[in-house]
Fold this protein.
Amino acid sequence: MKAAVFSRYGGNDVVEVQDVPMPVAGPGEVVIKVQAASVNPVDWKVREGQARIFTGSKFPKVLGCECAGEVFETGAGAARFRKGDRVVMYTSVKRLGAFAEYACTAEDRVYPITEGISFEQAACLPIAGLTALQSLRDHGRIGVGKKVLINGAAGGVGHFAVQIAKVFGAEVTGVTSGRNAEFVKGLGADRVIDRSKDDFTKGTGLYDLVFDAVSKSSFGACKRILTASGRYVNTLPDATILLQVLTALLPGKKARSMWVKPNAADMAWMMEQIKAGKIKVVIEQSYPLDRIKDALAASEGGRTKGKIIVSAG
């Protein structure tokens, strides 16, 4: 089968589409024939070696963390799915392997696709979709009437976050570039701040939650725009983790770093919102597998609206 392989950490030059052996389902595992895979910033960060604490130094590796397709094979003890079932898979940062014609992971990281949801839509959910949901709901404690600011509102995680926040009844301010202002308004944002003209951390408004979907600000910079019990949530574990420990039991403003935990209930919730028309998955560009370098470069450029997809079908 063909797969996006890299044999050392580095830039896009280390990635090649090569013929590699097909994965074989071990006990409790599922192999799918991939139809679509989603590109996320974590993919080029893995390629660069930023996640080597998880990925280690054994090569070659196949890039990619999430994909959707049809069940091809199940291993001993894997009884939830049958051949031909439509599913979405989170292979994880440690295992990788999604940018390929076939992918394999543990059965508990495979989820059914709701009728009416496409492979492309489903492939965008385990990382970007659920990062947005869990950041807002679990870490940000979003609710009706809460004032929420989303930094990076036009991106993969951000465009989901704007829509999810509106589903929960929040008042949403989106921060993005001026060229994406109308796009973010179209997602449901009540107000848009053009980051090229205004520094949102120096504004006069106060927010119950600042969700930094691109992790380009900080708790320190955002504290002044948080309400007395406001929360700052980012998507890149850093020194903010220490602040979590220091502020967890204290009243007042709090900081949280998000690490997504895909699960069946959250996947089903996202698909139901999409099916009901409350959330739309915006896919700006779809690339064939043999153009994986272009897909990674587009993600790394940081100017994409919504999601980037790799088609393996």
The CA atoms of residues 8 and 57 lie 8 Å apart.
